[in-house]
Amino acid sequence: MKSCGMSGKECSAQLELLGTNSGKSGICWFHGETDPENFKAVYENRTTVLIHSSGKRIRSAEHLSAASLAFPNCEFALQAPQGELPLLDGSAKPWKEELNDIVSHCAPANLNFYAPSQKKIEIKMGERFLKFVAGPELEIQYAISRFNQTFTATVRIKTTEDLEKIFQARTFIFEQELQTAKLSENLRNCGILLQSGKNPDFRFENEPAYHKILDLLGDISLYSNSLPCGKFTVFNGGHELHHTATSALIAGQGS
Question: Rounded to an integer, what distance in angstroms lies between the CA atom of residue 255 and that of residue 249?
Answer without folding.
Answer: 10
